[in-house]
Amino acid sequence: MKKAWSLSTTVRNPDRILSFLNVLKEMEGENFDEEGQIKYQTLLIQNRLYKPIHLPANLEGYYETVNDKMTFDQAVEIFGFMKDKSSELKRSPGLRGRTSVAPITKMGLAVAKKSSGSVIITNFGKAFLNNEIDLGEVFFRFLLKWQIPNPESDDYSINDGYNIKPFVGVLHLINSVNRKSEEAGKEPKGISKQEFSLFAPTLVNYGEIENYSNDIINLRNRLEGKNKREQKEIFEDYKNKFSEKFLGISDRTEVNKLLSNLKDYGDNAIRYFRLTRYIYIRGGGFYIDLEPRRHIEIKNLLSFYNGSCLLFDSKEQYAKYITDFAEPKLPWETKSKLVEIINDVVSDVRSKEQMLNLEEKDIPDYQSFDDNSLKKLIEEFRLYRRSLQEKENHNISQNVDNVNKYIEALNNIYKEKDKPIALEKYTALSLHALNDALKIQPNYPVGDDNEPTFTAPAGKPDIECYYNSFNAICEVTMLTGRDQWYNEGQPIMRHLRDFEDKNSNKDAYCLFVAPSLHRDTLNTFWFSVKYEYEGKKQKIIPLSINNFLELLKTLVVIKNKGQSLPHSEIAKLYNNILLSSNESRDVNEWMQKIPSVILTWQHELTA
Question: Are 14 and 139 in contact (CB under 8 A)?
């Protein structure tokens, strides 16, 4: 019986890859035998990157300190508790460590296996750790090589018909569907999320790409002209028959299991593929298409790779291939193609400059540049394009209707599929809308369409805000329990201090926004605001999402009067909230006063 492919079993949590790799670096040069595997898992616990369930209160307390990590001895205690409660760990104590390191080694960022000797961080992994490449580039390089079958897994065999590089195969599938749509005189739109979940994870052989694209077109033709009820009936019937054909059996239990899994497989694949910046979401979030701003790269990639697997004689040969950062050489990494790409990016930049009434950014005569210089110039202008896109966001956000959309989105944040990403996005757009900021800089990674692909990386503020008379960072989280405290408290104070030091010419604030504020988080901020953090007081403004929405509602009232909200008024509100802490006996009294401080501020502005 055939199986669909799933990225979630390979990668699981992409947001943890960098932090897990950082911990593994502490063991570079050590053996990854059972003792090493136990140590790695213990280090993850020490760094609070892994937390077993059902911990007793005394061990739970080790996670709840103001320090970034617990002591190693405390982590050893927790690992001992895990081992005592798990029959699997009693038989194989290194199991959890092997599981934790697997995504890192599968992606080629490190070598950490009992059979491979000492732990090695590959050049690929070092580039990631040194911020020479970002998460998007990591996933692109990995997904370009990831194939089914491969020597690292016994789940698939080429003798059973598996032969696909899923990422490349899906790009081919979308391209083929778009081409057939154009040939039929219809606007190409990529493939829908429903189509993606059904056809992408079940595309297990590159030779089926054209057949699958024909299936999608034929299904669309059957649905065309039908009402919603009829379309649902047709699609449900098609899914069942398609699944039976794929599995080679008609057993309802197996068919229903596959259909249930395909939704999750498809959603995960879209999420990870989106990180590469080679696909983007269109049509109100319902369609997955090829990224038009990378059309030169995609065209060359599809011409060079047909989606088939490479054959390897051994696991060692495959491991060498996966970990080699220099391979494969990308098909557009030639002088002529790189010049073509920079021409395309500059053309896009020029149109945005014209639309924003900005002077053209100077560009050097790059015809004589070598390949590396051209690649750096391409990235420089893509970053510049992002800054122009943020200026577009600022202009768009000045419309009252759009401010109301941000209010609605934040009000309904729990309905969003990727809630943490959505919270960062709509908070950034709201900060654009609020006033006359010089610059609002979200630090989340984005696609070429400037839509966030993931949350801001660790070590950076979520959003940086620059004004004439002050600066600020904004930190947001969907966490509401005690994990809010130990995930956000100390890191936020550190981010603010680093930001203060970097921008010492102006006062610096930190706006912290969460659905609700945990008492331990507030007590940590209270000490920083009232007394000190690393020797100096800090200006931290903790707001619930509802508190923050009151600022936006005030803005709507002001805009409807034809007026604007200068940033000096935001600074006034922040300072009044900080002053109210001086008049409060404890953090609870301070929090009770914040809504009334906001209300007074609203009345003064809107009276």
Answer: yes
What tokens does 167 get?
């990422």
- Same domain? 352 vs 498: no
Between CA 109 and CA 112 the distance in angstroms is 10
User: Which of 591, 575, 500 lies closest to 542 in space, CA to CA?
Assistant: 591
CA atoms within 13 A on the CB side of 66: 12
Look at the block and give the residue holding tokens 């508190």: 547
pLDDT at 483 over 70: yes
Do the beta carbons of residue 422 and residue 409 sit within 8 Å? Answer: yes
Domain C-terminal end among 129, 155, 179: 129
CA atoms of 266 and 259, how far apart (whole Å): 11
Q: CA-to-CA distance for 499 and 539, rounded, in angstroms?
A: 12
Q: Are 340 and 425 in a shared domain?
A: no
Which structure tokens are listed for 342? 């920079």
Residue type, 570: I
Same domain, 199 and 89: no
Q: Express each pLDDT in 542-561 by its tens digit.
A: 999 999 999 999 999 999 99
CB 109 within 8 A of CB 128: yes
Q: Is 204 helix (H, G, I), strand (E, B) or coil?
A: coil
Range(s) of the domain holding residue 284 = 164-308
Tens of pLDDT along 297-322?
999 999 999 999 998 888 888 888 98
Asked if residue 544 lies in contact with residue 517, where contact means CB atoms within 8 angstroms, the answer is: yes
Backbone angles phi, psi at 10, to 5 degrees: -95, -45
Distance from C-alpha of 63 to C-alpha of 19, rounded to nearest angstrom: 17
pLDDT of residue 112: 92
Q: Has residue 16 got a pLDDT over 90? A: no
Residue 561, Cβ neighbours under 10 Å: how many?
10
- pLDDT bucket at 66, cuts 50 / 70 / 90: low
pLDDT tens digit sequence for 426-454: 999 999 999 889 999 999 999 999 999 98
Burial call 303-330: b when 16+ CB within 10 Å, e when fewer: eebebebeebeeeeebbebbbebeeeeb
